[in-house]
Structures are given as structure tokens and as C-alpha cells.
Design a protein that fits this description.
This protein is mainly alpha-helical. 81% of the residues lie in helices and 0% in strands. It has one domain. It contains four helices and no strands. Helix 1 packs antiparallel against helix 2 and helix 2 runs antiparallel to helix 3.
Length: 121
């Protein structure tokens, strides 16, 4: 796969940016500000690493874990409920989880093919 081309990774980056920037326009509840910024930044980071070096299976797992963290932070941070930060975290984490899961099979296949190609030479 070519670098900087996968729509799934761009989606993860976009979801991370939305999460990290949500405290600018949303009400501050509990510890939503640091948790949203940290979790959003983590999604941006794993998305950019995946974009720069596709077929890194370990980073795909990292993106899945970052997505799960984004989903659970409203409960951990005390801002779960019908409010903008919680809904944003759940939506961004859910979308990131789904698109990362979609990107995993091609990444696994490409990594597997690359490994066996190297073993033949």
C-alpha cells in the first residue's frame, strides 16, 4: 500500500482532531478538557503513523486501543451523559474503531505477503 493514501487512516486523524479541538467550543464537564485533548492527540498520532508507514500491524492494534480509550473516557472522566464532549468522544471513538477494523485485514495480508517475500530472497 502507498503511504499517505488510506482513507481509513485519514478518518482516524480527522476524528482525533475533532476530539482534541472539542474543548474549544463545548462546555467543560468533569475532567473532559485534558481527557479529550489527550485521547484526540493519541488518535491523531496513531493515524499519522499509519499513514506514514502503512502495513504496520502493531500500529493498527494501537489505533484500535486508542479508539476504545476514546469510547470509555467519558465514563472515566466523569462527563458521561447527553453532553457534547461525551457524545463527541463516543462518536469519534466508534468511527475510529470501525474504520481501523476495516483497515486491518488488508494490512495483515500485506504484512504477511511482505514477510514471506523477504523469506524467499
Amino acid at each position: 500500500m502507498r503511504t499517505w493514501k488510506r482513507w481509513e487512516d485519514w478518518t482516524v486523524v480527522a476524528m482525533g482532531l475533532v476530539m482534541a479541538l472539542t474543548p474549544i467550543w463545548a462546555a467543560h464537564l468533569g475532567s473532559s478538557v485534558p481527557m479529550m485533548i489527550t485521547s484526540g492527540s493519541l488518535l491523531v498520532l496513531v493515524g499519522l503513523v499509519n499513514l506514514g508507514g502503512p502495513n504496520l500491524y502493531g500500529i493498527e492494534i494501537g489505533a484500535l486501543l486508542a479508539s476504545v480509550v476514546a469510547i470509555i473516557i467519558p465514563g472515566l472522566g466523569g462527563f458521561a451523559g447527553a453532553n457534547v464532549p461525551a457524545i463527541t468522544a463516543w462518536a469519534a471513538g466508534g468511527v475510529s474503531l470501525v474504520v481501523t477494523a476495516l483497515a486491518m485485514r488488508p494490512s495483515i495480508n500485506a504484512s504477511h505477503d511482505h514477510y514471506f517475500e523477504m523469506r524467499r530472497t
